[in-house]
Every structure is written in C-alpha cells, then in structure tokens.
Amino acid sequence: KAGVTQTPRYLIKTRGQQVTLSCSPISGHRSVSWYQQTPGQGLQFLFEYFSETQRNKGNFPGRFSGRQFSNSRSEMNVSTLELGDSALYLCASSPGPANTEAFFGQGTRLTVV
Amino acid sequence: GEDVEQSLFLSVREGDSSVINCTYTDSSSTYLYWYKQEPGAGLQLLTYIFSNMDMKQDQRLTVLLNKKDKHLSLRIADTQTGDSAIYFCAETLERYQKVTFGTGTKLQVIP
Fold it and tell me: Residue B6, Cα to own-chain centre: how many angstroms?
C-alpha cells in the first residue's frame, strides 16, 4: 500500500511569487491535513479537508489556501510568498472524519529567496 | 487551550532505556500520539493511546498516560543508535483532524 506522496520534494521560489504543493493521501483515506514546520515555530496546523470540504483551519493569513479534489488528493497554495514562508510543509492523511491515525508524507521543503 | 510541552534534548547510552516526557493542557484531548522524525524526513507515527487508557506497550515502546497530571511519556527499551531522532508528542480532539504538536525532544544515542 503506497504511503502519502507529496510533490515536489524541494522548491525554491522568489519573494512575491506563488506556489502550489500537492499531496496524494493513502488510497482509501478521505481526510487530508496540512502542517508547516519551521525551526522557530515548530509544527503548526494549517488546515484539514474531508470529502472536499475544509473542516478546520489554523491561524495563518489568507495567503495560505487549499482544496481537496474528489479523489481525495489535496493541494495547498501560498500566494505573495514571504521569506518567512520558508519551511517544510507536511501533509497527513487519515481514513475518515474522526481522528484516528494520521500518516505523514515526506514533506515539501520550500525555500523563499 | 491547547499547549504541549516537551524537554528539548535527551542523551542516553546505547542499550539503556530512554524516557521522553510530555505535558499537555487540553483536558478534552482524546488521542495522544508519539511521532518520530529523522533528519530530512517526514513524521513517522510510532504509537498512540486513547485518553481512557493508562498504558500501551508495543515491542520496545511503552506509553504511559497520567490524565490527572496531563502527563504522557514514551519509554524506549534497549535504545539503539537508529533511535536517534526528534520525538514529537501530539494531542487531538476526537472530532477534528487537527493535531497539536509539542516542541519535540531530540534524542541522542551514544554508542
């Protein structure tokens, strides 16, 4: 059974640009969550989707957005990139709506220059 | 409110037991997790415990939960050099897929 796949693994962008990250959950999993990991702030929750609906959102500005498709794949988008957006972005998938086990992907390392 | 705290660093000798501690403040937490993160990698779920349990054992791993003190611990028996990593404690409420992580404890295993 394939794990959670995040693409791309590494990304370098310039300030002011926008970026889209992709996450394919484990087959059969319908819940996808996104997290930002930085040395200063640690792991912070961005948002969570279940059946194409955003159910929960963390304390991030509106520049951070996401969506989930009917096949449960999810994308997150960051517009008008800032240097502080440099981080490891992690995606997690879970089987259903109630929280059980969350399986994480390898992450996308975003560097903003 | 949600706040999960861990000590930042732990150093043990190979073969000894490691105990990583965590405190949380949200008494509504339903699931408590331990994740392992190796350099350059994502998070690996090691084990989790329901809040109505006191203890869970899985091979070399033992999780102890003290709900009264909101204290969670992870004991790794016979610690190996491959156990060197950052360990995150995390909590969540039942209905939401929002995991709140601790600051992480860096475990260093000395050969």
Answer: 9
Structural tokens at position A59: 């304390």
- A20-to-A24, A75, A108 alpha-carbon distances in Å: 13, 7, 10
The CA-CA-CA angle for residues A67, B37, B24, to 5°, reads 80
Quote the minimal CA–CA distance from A43 to chain B in Å.
Answer: 6
Instruction: Could you list the beta-strand ranges (E) of B67-103.
Output: 71-76, 85-92, 100-101
Res A99: pLDDT: 54
Kindly report, residue by residue over A45-75, the tens digit of the pLDDT.
Answer: 999 999 999 988 889 999 999 999 999 999 9
> Least CB-CB distance to B97: which of A43, A56, A105?
A56
User: Does B103 sit within 8 Å of A42, measured CB to CB?
Assistant: yes
What span, in angstroms and rounded, lies between the C-alpha atoms of A108 and A88? 6
What is chain A's percent helix, strand, coil content, to nearest 5?
A: 5, 55, 45
